[in-house]
Amino acid sequence: MSLPPSSPSPSSSYVVRVAEDPADREACFAVRKEVFVGEQGVPEDIEYDAYDAGAVHVLAVREGVALGTGRLLYGEAAAAQNGGDRSVGSLGRLAVAKSARGLGVGAALVRAIEEAARARGLRAVDLHAQTHALGFYERLGYEAYGPEYLEAGIPHQAMRRAL
Asked: PANTHER family, alphabetically (predicted)?
């Protein structure tokens, strides 16, 4: 499945697309390594998982440089993350390179993941937000639920948005 490329804005000049080939996937993984492993200290052996193979990965790119990434899990993979509901997708591994923060890349990636979820007939998207990012997701229409918990040693909160 391919999303139409987003229209680059003059100030940011980036596009968000589904990562369709091995080079795109590697670019996604490189951004995740930079942000989660390098900046946040997440152990590399838990950053990449079996879900990566079947996930929809999205990639933000400017002039051939990867700016950010995220992934959508759906079907059984999402149900394993959200308590068993196959009609709810799971947004995860959202990461924006430090040099691209403040350009709207994160929001564009979330919207692209939501579009991929709609295309698969999903009714909602769940995510596990790092608590420092709750405001970001709330501005995009996500609502927190359940207790705060630790994931990879980082405080998180479950959130959901109906599509």
From this structure: AMINOALKYLPHOSPHONATE N-ACETYLTRANSFERASE-RELATED, AMINOALKYLPHOSPHONATE N-ACETYLTRANSFERASE-RELATED-RELATED
